[in-house]
Amino acid sequence: MIKVSVVGAKGRMGGNVVGAVNDAADTELALALDAGDDLTRITPENTDVVVEFTVPSVSLDNVLTLIGQGVDVVVGTTGWTDEKLDQVRTALASAPREDQAVFIAPNFAISAVLTDYFAGIAAKYFESAEVVEMHHPNKVDAPSGTAIHTAHTIAEARKAAGLAPVPDATETDGGSRGQVVDGIHVHAVRLRGLNAHEEVLLGNPGEQLVIRSDCFDRGSFMPGVLLAVRNVSSHPGLTIGLDNFLSL
């Protein structure tokens, strides 16, 4: 049995994780902690893997504390920057265990991971590319970490293929063209009734390819969370992206 502690257990995602851990045959819930709780209660004696689902403003400090506690961590909180990731790598370099592991997922939905993967395959064949992400209005970051990751994936594929910059004759946009991530425009929609959705739009003269992921409720993320829990300890260091565990 994998002993799993959940940080952010009273949140919407954290609550679903608690339920998924309790329901799975090979995991058991160790501790369910939330804001204000002492994370040093989590130790290698009571926990094999911690799942951290909180908010971007506290996630880095939580992860650094958990690294110091000597436990492996699966992170679902978004909002990670290169600077924050470097801090995690530095902490792992002096962690209590040489084989300590941290896994960060821009998205736990299998459909979203495959959307990103397929976008990377297709991007080199198209002149134009844009990303549209659509979420519920309670999401605190925009654009989503998933969309930013997809934009980087597309940009890397285009660079490897030697493509020119995406054509765009817009002179002034007033912000309506979205955030530019690595040369790719990313648009964020926040609308009541939505959960988590992403479209990758790829275009050539006379043709268009649309790759879309729709996650209708938070239960869609739980198979990915459990996949990460089962695999994180066999991947020492920092791993980013569920695709690393999907044999793609």
From TrEMBL:
Homotetramer. Signal peptide: none annotated. InterPro entries: DapB_C (IPR022663), DapB_N (IPR000846), DapB_N_CS (IPR022664), DHDPR_bac (IPR023940), NAD(P)-bd_dom_sf (IPR036291). Its main location: cytoplasm. Residues 2-108 form the Dihydrodipicolinate reductase N-terminal domain. One of its GO terms (biological process) is lysine biosynthetic process via diaminopimelate. It is an enzyme of class 1 (oxidoreductase). (S)-2,3,4,5-tetrahydrodipicolinate binds at H136, G145, T146. It comes from Bifidobacterium primatium. NAD(+) binds at G8, A9, K10, G11, R12, M13, D34, G76, T77, T78, A105, P106, N107, F108. This is 4-hydroxy-tetrahydrodipicolinate reductase. Belongs to the DapB family. The active site is at H135, K139. GO terms for cellular component: cytosol. It catalyses: (S)-2,3,4,5-tetrahydrodipicolinate + NADP(+) + H2O = (2S,4S)-4-hydroxy-2,3,4,5-tetrahydrodipicolinate + NADPH + H(+); (S)-2,3,4,5-tetrahydrodipicolinate + NAD(+) + H2O = (2S,4S)-4-hydroxy-2,3,4,5-tetrahydrodipicolinate + NADH + H(+). The gene is dapB. Gene3D superfamilies: Dihydrodipicolinate Reductase, domain 2, NAD(P)-binding Rossmann-like Domain. Residues 114-246 form the Dihydrodipicolinate reductase C-terminal domain. Keywords: Amino-acid biosynthesis, Cytoplasm, Diaminopimelate biosynthesis, Lysine biosynthesis, NAD, NADP, Oxidoreductase. Its EC number is 1.17.1.8. It is found in: Cytoplasm.
